[in-house]
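Summarise this fold before class:
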Amino acid sequence: MTITAQHPHPLRFGAAYYPEYQPSLDLERDLDLMRAAHFNVIRVGESVWSTWEPRNGEFDLEWLQPVLDGAHARGIGVILGTPTYAVPPWLWRTYPEIAGDVATGRPQGWGRRQEVDITHAAFRFHAERVIRAVMARYAAHPAVIGVQVDNEPGAMLLHNHNTFVGFLDWLRERYGDVETLNRAWGLVYWSHRIGDWSELWCPDGNLQPQYALAWRRYQDELVTGFIGWQADLVRQYMRDDQFVTTCVALDRPAVHEEQVVRRLDVPALNAYHGVEEHLDLARQLTRPDHWIRTGVAGLLELGDRGYALRQERFLVTETNLQSINWWWQHFPPYPGQIRQSALALIARGASMIEYWHWHTLHFGTETYWGGVLPHSQVPGRIYAEVSALGDVLAGLGDRLDGYTPDADVALLYSTDSKQSFEDFPPLCNADGSPRASAYHDIVDAFHAAVLHAGAQARFLHAEQWDELTASDAARRFPVLVAAAFYVATTGQLGKLRAYAAAGGHLVVGPRTGYGDEESRARFAIAPDVVGPAGGVHYEEFTSLRSPVAVVGEGMAVSGGAAGQWWADHLLVDDADVLARYDHPQLGRFPAVTTRAHGRGRVTYVGTVPDRTLGADLVRHLVPTPVAAAWRRDTPVTVLSGVANGTRVHFVHNWSRSVAHAVTPHGVDDLVGGVPLPAGHRLTLDPWDSLVLADTTPPTDPVRQSATQGK
């Protein structure tokens, strides 16, 4: 993997289009409205296997031809979807055994989507047949620019008999014999030692963490293999100028997002986020639903994780317009927030913004998931704002070719640790119940801290970390946060230590260096490997059911700063204390320490920082981020990246009030089309956003990270 790779596709803008769902189709009107809104891409065909093949072996393929012809005539490219995630009734009636089991012997009921066993031979036979039929008919059409295989893969963990048999084969290949498995999983515990593979129990009642992690890894590989299988099929019909992708829905239970995109041409994800007050930078709200991000930090997390899929620009295949949620929740965006959100995702590396979807559906589960047009099909406020955004993006043209988002801080992302913590979380709620979101509670706290310190972040998957040398990592990423890196090999931890020795500033957070590659607690003083480099160790740790105040000792800490959910009882061997708990008992232990190591530094954070403590920490780590020269009001952020040798700045006002920013040097307003001098006072209306480009080549400030001094 080359982590500076860039895919060649230009900035695209559009929506999913479902003519088959229209109660009264007016194709020419729809396409004309799209073109007037500067659409240059639509996505079609992925949801309707029963339309492509209404009866077993009987195909109806001609209904899409007018859509592709009309799109091509208007210069609109088409992403063609394979329909394998929506199984037709005739197929499951003929082969009821293809249902995916949600538990051993308990099939998922029909009437949803993705309720199928993707490994079943009967399903694969019919899936291949419909894929080949659709691709043979339309892959060569000049409107088709790419193919999306399946949709949001990894929706469920499969418990089918053949899945479990495959799991046993996978274990045999991985461990060789049962005695090796017994040792690796610690099956002496509770008398779980097995003498033969046939004695391994099904996963339903499992309480062994090592088994659970292996089960999740196997499920990830099944989904990766399924998507790769489809990609190989469709490539047999495609031109060289077309691409293959799938739309990743982050944190699905059976998807390893970095793995699944490796066999594709272009990474893509679906980016659903809260709007209205959720986009107020000063607010901290709960998620509207578990799959919807909240806050500006949540929106940027989507963008940063999209870029991290392959460390290159990515497609947003779905994102919200009108209210997006179930029948009982309705939250449409405030005026300006559509443009604001799209430009924020583009600032973090998106090369396409595609909305779900064109027309609001009149039936089905997603009746109130609003599209560009409302139920009346009469263009209104949403269409007008989408059109205005389309005008902005069309005006940008090729100005973002080769765009690479800036990053002041890199954050290590471990899917193994995340999935392990989903089953065995280390954090608890105030009532003592487990927090299945523990991994993201920890990692996202550091990610949000970067935003609130006025800096920018980059996620780096553990697998991508493995492909870097320590010195290369130190050069590319001067500050690296490794928090909640629980499932880690000794080699991975050793590279973290070597990264600091090579000149990087390593920030170690809770649970890193405690587990090994099998999710076993390490037989070592914690944190293993990285602890001596940081000059600290600990024996005990505390669950925090409420935040605990933190005060500065060697760094500036604002009033009200706190640690939350977790506190290591840190013992200092040879380190400087930067912050300490303001608590009668925990005050014995530092919350944050730092120590020089080789040419770099190791800072240890023994708690999950709240917004205030996190921002203070990042300001200490990165005193001069890329956007440091910008003077702006509190609700204003400056996101940036470099394209065509020019730094481009995306300036956002995340508030309901007018706000201001001052240009540190001359810039071109890429939206207004006018040059602005240094010291120009920008006025941003509520939820406003600007795109500005430097008039001189970028000269990054020499960012003094705290590798130099405390």
The longest helix spans residues 209-235.
